[in-house]
Amino acid sequence: MKKVILKPLHHRNQECIGIYFDNYGTINTLIRKQANAKWSQSNKCWYVPLSKENYNKLFFALKGKAEIEKSELHSYLADKKKNVIKKEIPSSASLQAINKTTIKKPLIKQSPASIHQPVKKSVVLYKNVRIHPVNAHIIPATEQHLKLKAYSPSTIKTYLIELTQLLLLLKNIPADDLTPEHLKRYLVHCYEKLKLSENTLHSRINAMKFYYEQVLRREKFFWEIPRPKKQLQLPRFFSQNDIVALIKATGNIKHKIMLMLAYSAGLRVSEVVAMKTRNMDESRMTILIEQAKGKKDRMVTLSPVLLVMLREYIKEYKPDPKGYLFAGQGEGEPYSTRSMQLVLATAKEKAGILKPGSVHALRHSFATHLLDKGTDVTIIMKLLGHNDIKTTLRYLHVTNRDMLQIISPLDDLKLE
After folding, report:
1. Which pLDDT tens digit goes with each residue over 212-250?
2. CA atoms of 40 and 29, how far apart (whole Å)
3. Are 123 and 20 in the same domain?
4. CA 93 to CA 109: how far, in whole Å?
5. Against a cut of 0.70, is the pTM above it?
6. Which domain holds residue 138?
7. Is there a contact between 384 and 392 (Cβ–Cβ < 8 Å)?
8. The domain spanning residue 342 has which CATH number?
9. If DSSP codes are grouped into helix, strand and coil, which group holds residue 414?
10. Where are the beta strands (DSSP E) in 291-336?
């Protein structure tokens, strides 16, 4: 039986129940629909506000469907009842983790962005998180600057979330007074204590770098701060037999076409859900990808097999000719990326595919299978929308086109 772990979680300044389990599509659907659970991208788990009512909803939603491990949650509630711990789950350590000595006076002159600091109560700045007045100007100033420079909504969201984590840790210590040395200690704290991954650390560094160098205009402020070395991971992809099993396991024609579109053209999940009906050009057998990553347009091929399925889908669902090809729940809204990930997770479970891989693995599969067939790497680079050929060359490490011609030295041994 599948296992689900319930743990205490502090999220958005609120006590919550964190719900942890392997990516089972059926469990996702159960807790989302019956317990109103929400997904936390920062904590990589589902959660509900901590209450007896929400706990009961979770219990009855999962009863008979999964084994529930709740020892940590019960232990937390027991300690709380005995007043052994504070009323709210402790968040990250204070700035003592960054520097043992508290900053007593400003290290840098007050910046223009801090002139309008509020002087009374904490104010809600981002995602219902309360930040001390001394740092209340930072999130609005950063958000404004990001929008003026026309950063994408996803990048804006990521930068603001990462900055908020720093400000919650600082509490009443002015972030504008920090030096590169303070930030180095903070990043060590993030790596050693918070166990953040290299990718998350890069995002946090980018957010802080943007604030100090772009908003506060402190040039070369991050020159002394090294970046963590990223792990070199090979692209995760599905075999062609896996792709067939995934498509056959998906009964809903809308979901089936979304997966087929992602694989047939090597699209990102964001590009699939943002697809407009008008972007399908049947006469030229092409698909226009509008303003994808890096705000770039590109053209990809329209598969004849996919075209046949699209005609059936359009006949049944009748999508708006000027709107999204895959409509979401709200009027005029696209299908959500999270929902599409759940579609794939459910298909994997039904098809019995255990190997890891999200919707992005379909894009990796597209590139890998083209290389296996001998397609020129520069053509694949254009189809994927890569800026640098080095990004596309990663797929050379996973293609079996040349490896099939290699004979292992073990095969030359006479073991009889």
Report:
1. 999 999 988 888 888 888 777 788 899 999 999 999 999
2. 15
3. no
4. 27
5. no
6. 95-105+119-215
7. yes
8. 1.10.443.10
9. coil
10. 298-301
